[in-house]
Amino acid sequence: MTGLAAAGTGAFSGVVSASRGWSRRIRLNGVLVGLSLLWLALVVLAAVAPAVLAPGDPVQLHPTEVLRAPGPDAVLGTEQYGRSVYVLLVHGARTALTIGVAATALAVVAGSLIGLVAGYAGGVVDALIGRVLDVMMALPGVLLALLITAAAGPSVGVLIVSVGVASIAGFARLMRGEVISTRTRLYVEAARATGISPARILMRHVLPNAAAPVAALATIAVGEAILAAAALSFLGLGPRLDVPDWGQLLASGQAFLRQSWWVSVFAGAVISLTVVSVGLVGDWLRERTRA
């Protein structure tokens, strides 16, 4: 009896310690998600109303303030033209967020339509679309976006299209799988038996039930699109704007990295924080859709 009691006590203690570990993990994840949402709210505010966070003029040059280290007059220092790095980062958020959201929207719409058709039609149509998607997924997304941007020329519109096209295959694959698992359910079979058109079945019955995983993936894809756009701008394929985007600011500080580290370091930190925050929020949404 004493041995059984000891074993029971040990098992109970193990369950309690495991539950405490899970509760600490949940609290930690909740804190990280909360901080990520706060950071993303600041990024959105910077994109919508940059003058609220950074009243300075991001275009005006200051030759006497070139490469000043971070301090009271310049919180994050200045770059090679004397402009505040903080002001440039705040005003550059609009370009980064515009490209990230627009490219993801293009990928979601195009990929979802392709996945809907392939998953619902099946047969030869599904096989043909599947081969095209296999070719697209065989190429790294950044490489495909780089090829499109290099061929069409640098601009915000081209960057949106190139990054969006590179993400279409992933959304099409996900939507196809969701449609295949949904189209055999009883309510879809009942709708088909009553003579409802395939297009109406897709829009009213299949798409709403397959949209949740796609929406969760779209949140993560925004961060990936921002990172891809920054990478292309870093390589010199970004749009030529008066206010440099985050990737261009990162690249511009590369030549002065040893003596003026703050230009590239702070630009890279902002990109990293934004991508990580979007990823954490996307993972949180994905877990909630599974629950």
Automatic annotation (TrEMBL):
It comes from the Bacteria. PROSITE patterns: ABC_TM1. The keyword Cell membrane applies. Pfam families: BPD_transp_1. Residues 93-282 form the ABC transmembrane type-1 domain. Keywords: Cell membrane, Membrane, Transmembrane, Transmembrane helix, Transport. It is a multi-pass membrane protein. The chain crosses the membrane at residues 30-53, 96-120, 132-150, 156-175, 210-237, 261-285. It is found in: Cell membrane. The keyword Cell inner membrane does not apply. Belongs to the binding-protein-dependent transport system permease family. This is ABC transporter permease. It comes from Microbacterium marinilacus.
